[in-house]
């Protein structure tokens, strides 16, 4: 039995992704404090909605997808109910395996995971790192569960805050660029629906090329840049406005915020 505690944006993306890829709703429990949201989840996905204690006592694999700020209180609350052989997978930004182990039973198997919302459409990217008591088999279990919603990479836990900044937060950078491009089209007088279609398909096609060509992004960008042309003019403006530095600083700020979240 898999239980998800906290079916907000990320928890629901994992839930929907898992069910879309063949998990049986009868094998999934969900915990959500808000009555109306709990009822909506039950109606939408056909899963059983239970209390956190019940989820902890019945789950073979427990996914914790509540906010980092709510995590310690939840861990302290469910620790007595948890099955000794339960695998705990936390997707919370910044919450280390040491914190999870400290507030659950000392020898519990925990895996820290950082997914992203494209899990909803089966194209997620998740990095995982093992706690002190998680065996290779536990990592395999976490990986096979998360692979149902996209790709999975094992990383040292020391990299997890950077993972959070790159792939966990990454979809937001992408949507920010998409939004900016659409608004630029609208500013220049294009109908919004036309701008949205052009930008969405451009981004989808570019992402597919980046994934499938095996080329470095610089090579792909150079292929778009005709001598004396539009792309070179545009890139000069991006550099002049410090967009590269802005992105680097943004990603560093996300990494630092993830670190701060581990301090409570
Ligand atoms: N959003 C994302 O793209 C990603 C998020 N994450 C991580 O996922 C976690 C959730 O983030 P996100 O989905 O964005 O946040 P949300 O606020 O959308 O989701 C958190 C959910 O947890 C519920 N919740 C709060 N307290 C409890 C509790 N005691 N028991 C059960 N459920 C509870 C909340 O209910 P209510 O609203 O009623 O308070 C809410 O539905 C965070 O730890 C975040 O770091 C990781 C990767 C990507
Ligand atoms: O914004 C956040 O804190 C979460 C973690 C990664 C993406 N969203």
TrEMBL record:
Its EC number is 1.5.1.2. Its main location: cytoplasm. It holds the Pfam family F420_oxidored. GO terms for cellular component: cytoplasm. Keywords: Amino-acid biosynthesis, Cytoplasm, NADP, Oxidoreductase, Proline biosynthesis. One of its GO terms (molecular function) is pyrroline-5-carboxylate reductase activity. The keyword RNA-binding does not apply. Residues 2-94 form the Pyrroline-5-carboxylate reductase catalytic N-terminal domain. Residues 157-261 form the Pyrroline-5-carboxylate reductase dimerisation domain. Pathway: Amino-acid biosynthesis; L-proline biosynthesis; L-proline from L-glutamate 5-semialdehyde: step 1/1. SUPFAM superfamilies: 6-phosphogluconate dehydrogenase C-terminal domain-like, NAD(P)-binding Rossmann-fold domains. It is an enzyme of class 1 (oxidoreductase). InterPro entries: 6-PGluconate_DH-like_C_sf, NAD(P)-bd_dom_sf, P5C_Rdtase_cat_N, P5CR-like_CS, P5CR_dimer, Pyrroline-COOH_reductase. It catalyses: L-proline + NAD(+) = (S)-1-pyrroline-5-carboxylate + NADH + 2 H(+); L-proline + NADP(+) = (S)-1-pyrroline-5-carboxylate + NADPH + 2 H(+). NADP(+) binds at residues 5-10, 65-68. GO terms for biological process: L-proline biosynthetic process. Belongs to the pyrroline-5-carboxylate reductase family. Catalyzes the reduction of 1-pyrroline-5-carboxylate (PCA) to L-proline. HAMAP family: P5C_reductase (MF_01925). This is Pyrroline-5-carboxylate reductase. It comes from Actinorugispora endophytica. The gene is proC.
């Amino acid at each position: 039995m898999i239980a998800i505690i906290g079916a907000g944006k990320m928890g629901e993306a994992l839930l929907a992704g898992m069910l879309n890829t063949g998990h049986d709703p009868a094998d999934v429990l969900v915990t959500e404090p808000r009555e109306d949201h709990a009822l909506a989840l039950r109606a939408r996905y056909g899963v059983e909605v239970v209390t956190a204690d019940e989820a902890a006592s019945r789950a073979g694999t427990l996914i914790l997808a509540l906010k980092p700020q709510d995590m310690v209180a939840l861990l302290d609350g469910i620790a007595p109910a948890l099955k000794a052989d339960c695998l705990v997978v936390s997707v919370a930004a910044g919450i280390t395996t040491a914190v999870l182990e400290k507030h659950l039973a000392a020898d519990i198997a925990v895996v820290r995971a950082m997914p992203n919302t494209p899990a909803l459409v089966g194209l997620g990217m998740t990095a995982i790192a093992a706690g002190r008591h998680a065996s290779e088999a536990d990592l395999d279990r976490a990986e096979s569960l998360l692979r149902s919603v996209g790709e999975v990479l094992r990383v040292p836990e020391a990299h997890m805050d950077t993972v959070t900044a790159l792939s966990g937060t990454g979809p937001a950078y992408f949507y920010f660029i998409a939004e900016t491009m659409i608004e630029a089209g609208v500013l220049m007088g294009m109908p919004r629906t036309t701008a949205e279609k052009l930008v969405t398909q451009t981004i989808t096609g570019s992402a597919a090329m980046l994934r499938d060509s095996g080329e470095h992004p610089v090579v792909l960008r150079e292929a778009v840049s005709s001598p004396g042309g539009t792309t070179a003019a545009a890139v000069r403006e991006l550099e002049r406005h410090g967009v590269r530095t802005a992105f680097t600083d943004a990603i560093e700020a996300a990494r630092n915020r993830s670190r701060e979240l581990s301090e409570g």
